């Protein structure tokens, strides 16, 4: 994978949110950005607890060649996701990206494409500790000077690219995790069992 169309991911994420009732109220940008920050903080908590995704076990369980009904396949996917990926650093970082993609869909922001190979070669804050890096990401998300001097579209793209870039540099296949989390989200009930936002 070299180039990823972020607008396709944006549309898929936004549509899933609409179907699940997350855009019935007109909420502020600050509301959605606070949720992005909350996902980054959950990633810190997962890191503190040493909770990393067990991808090989997940893939092994999903790789059974036994024919399954669609209902059984969905149930097993959900169970395996919850057992091996949910609550991990990787899942929380994927959630932060999904929140930004969703907000970009809501505000009709053109995110363009990203070249993953270019991100691997980019310079930046990636040699810092995990907590220092997340602090940097949160500081940039709350940087009102950037928002005032750039378009909101640029702000959202930069915020998303920084998280993706961090993941790429840390050898986290963030697009795989986003894909798995989106599949999981699609299986959840309306408003995910009564959450208000």
Explain this structure.
The protein has 197 residues and is mainly alpha-helical. The chain has one domain. Helix content is 69%, strand content 3%. It is built from eleven helices and two strands, in the order E-H-H-H-H-H-E-H-H-H-H-H-H. The protein has helices spanning 6-19, 29-48, 55-62, 70-84, 89-106, 116-121, 130-141, 144-149, 152-169, 174-187, 191-194, and strands at residues 3-5, 113-115. Helix 4 (70-84) packs across helix 10 (174-187).
**What is the residue-averaged pLDDT?**
90
Oligomer: single chain
Q: What's the structural domain tally?
A: 1
Please identify the structural class as seen in this structure: mainly alpha
Low-pLDDT stretches are none
Shape: globular
Trace the largest sheet across and list its strands: 1-2
Largest sheet report: 2 strands, antiparallel
Distinct helical segment count: 11
Strand content: under 5%
Approximately how much helix is present in the residues?
A: 55-70%
Order of helices and strands: EHHHHHEHHHHHH
What's the gyration radius in Å?
17 Å
């Amino acid at each position: 994978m070299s180039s990823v169309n972020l607008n396709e991911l944006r549309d898929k994420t936004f549509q899933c949110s609409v179907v699940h009732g997350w855009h019935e109220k007109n909420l502020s940008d600050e509301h959605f950005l606070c949720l992005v920050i909350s996902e980054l903080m959950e990633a810190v908590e997962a890191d503190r607890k040493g909770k990393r995704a067990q991808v090989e076990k997940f893939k092994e369980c999903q790789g059974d060649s036994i024919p399954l009904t669609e209902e059984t396949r969905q149930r097993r996917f959900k169970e395996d996701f919850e057992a091996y990926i949910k609550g991990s650093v990787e899942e929380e970082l994927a959630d932060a990206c999904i929140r930004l993609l969703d907000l970009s869909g809501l505000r009709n922001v053109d995110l363009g494409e990203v070249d993953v190979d270019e991100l691997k070669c980019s310079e930046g804050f990636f040699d810092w500790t995990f907590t220092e890096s997340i602090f940097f990401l949160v500081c940039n998300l709350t940087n009102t000077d950037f928002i005032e001097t750039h378009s909101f579209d640029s702000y959202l793209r930069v915020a998303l690219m920084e998280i993706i870039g961090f993941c790429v540099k840390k050898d986290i296949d963030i697009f795989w995790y986003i894909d798995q989390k989106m599949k999981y989200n699609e299986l959840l009930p309306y408003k995910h069992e009564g959450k208000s936002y």
